[in-house]
Design a protein that fits this description.
Strand order of the largest sheet: 2-1-3-4-6-5-8-7
Oligomer: single chain
Helix content: 25-40%
Order of helices and strands: HEEHEHHEHEHEHEHEHH
Number of strands: 8
Distance between the termini: 45 Å
Strand content: 5-15%
Shape: globular
CATH architecture of the largest domain: 3-Layer(aba) Sandwich
CATH class of the largest domain: Alpha Beta
Largest sheet: 8 strands, mixed
CATH superfamily of the largest domain: Thiamin diphosphate (ThDP)-binding fold, Pyr/PP domains
Bound molecules: thiamine diphosphate, iron/sulfur cluster
Structural class: alpha/beta
Radius of gyration: 21 Å
Length: 292
């Protein structure tokens, strides 16, 4: 059973745990946006399960009053999917960093997308490993100097937006704490979407991140997809725009499938119902067995 209450204030989702993120970390903005989005959704905290991996960003479930599990590095998605199968009535959120989601956990992403369970996955993409003190991450720009790339990275970054779009995700968006109202809107829309919803948040790491990824620069350079007249129902245009990842900070909805495809949970439920309806009574099964 689900309950919808319109009276839950954002602070109802704020736990007593004080965040230990560095002052100014972008993740503060993400958790604020999440409180507001959950308040707008109106489901009480005990009907929400929030699963993360390991990293600075993965601490986020602990700062909410939802049921939370700060699990294993790279494993937020498989755990969230298992939980959604077992408890389909829960609102299931998954979150983590770019290292967590696109490096060690990168193999889970295409399968989570193709299964299309009703889960919202928020990645706090700071283009660096924050928790372990500033190593190269899969989204670090080419040439970036870090403790593990002292002469500059030689690898091209992965493009998470293009990845998930080509895997077939029905909902793909990008936000930043530099535009908090926009981020609230995106997270709320992702939660409301009936399927796998991916939100990439350009969440700056103030301690190890690059100057161009900081809030001030983001504010001056970000471009709203809506302001550009992008139609989020247009997949080809979304794919084309996603190519600018790493050079232009586009905010808003890249893609929202106008006809949400069936979710894995609903297909499994349907099959179970059909099997139950087709099942023979126990005596008939025994009869058939003896006749053979
Ligand atoms: C199996 C395993 N491998 C490596 C680690 C070490 N480790 C912890 S967090 C992390 C990366 C953190 O970066 P990211 O996921 O981008 O999150 P951030 O801290 O930047 O938010 C690594 C390599 C681990 N905890 N477990
Ligand atoms: S190290 Fe970076 S990502 Fe981690 S809390 Fe500090 S600013 Fe945030």
């Amino acid at each position: 059973m689900t309950t919808a209450t319109a009276t839950l204030a954002p602070k109802a989702f704020k736990s007593e745990l004080k965040p230990i993120w560095c002052p100014g970390c972008g993740d503060f903005g993400v958790v604020q946006a999440l409180y507001r989005a959950l308040s707008a959704i109106g489901r009480p905290a005990h009907e929400i399960a929030f699963i993360s991996g390991i990293g600075c960003s993965s601490r986020i479930p602990g700062y909410t009053t939802a049921y939370g599990f700060n699990s294993v590095h790279g494993r937020a998605l498989p755990i969230a999917q298992g939980l959604k199968m077992a408890r389909p009535e829960l609102l299931v959120l998954a979150a983590g960093g770019d290292g967590d989601g696109f490096s060690i956990g990168g193999g889970h992403l295409p399968h989570a997308v193709r299964r299309n369970q009703n889960i919202t996955y928020i990645v706090m993409d700071n283009q660096i490993y924050g928790l372990t003190k500033g190593q190269l991450s899969p989204t670090s720009p080419k040439g970036l100097k870090t403790v593990t790339s002292v002469d500059g990275s030689l690898e091209n970054p992965v493009n998470p937006l293009m990845y998930v779009l080509t895997y077939g995700a029905p909902f793909v968006a990008q936000g930043t704490p530099a535009d908090l109202p926009g981020l609230v809107e995106i997270i709320e829309a992702a939660i409301r979407y009936p399927g796998f919803a991916f939100v990439n948040v350009q969440s700056p790491c103030v301690t190890f991140g690059e100057p161009e990824q900081q809030i001030k620069t983001q504010k001056a350079t970000m471009e709203s997809l809506e302001g550009m007249g992008h139609d989020p129902g247009n997949l080809i245009e979304a794919l084309d725009l996603s190519r600018a990842y790493g050079t232009t900070l586009h905010t808003g909805l890249f893609y929202r499938s106008p006809e949400p495809p069936p979710t894995f949970d609903s297909l499994v439920h349907e099959r179970q119902q059909r099997m139950m309806a087709d099942a023979l009574p126990r005596e008939r099964i025994l009869e058939q067995f003896i006749q053979r």
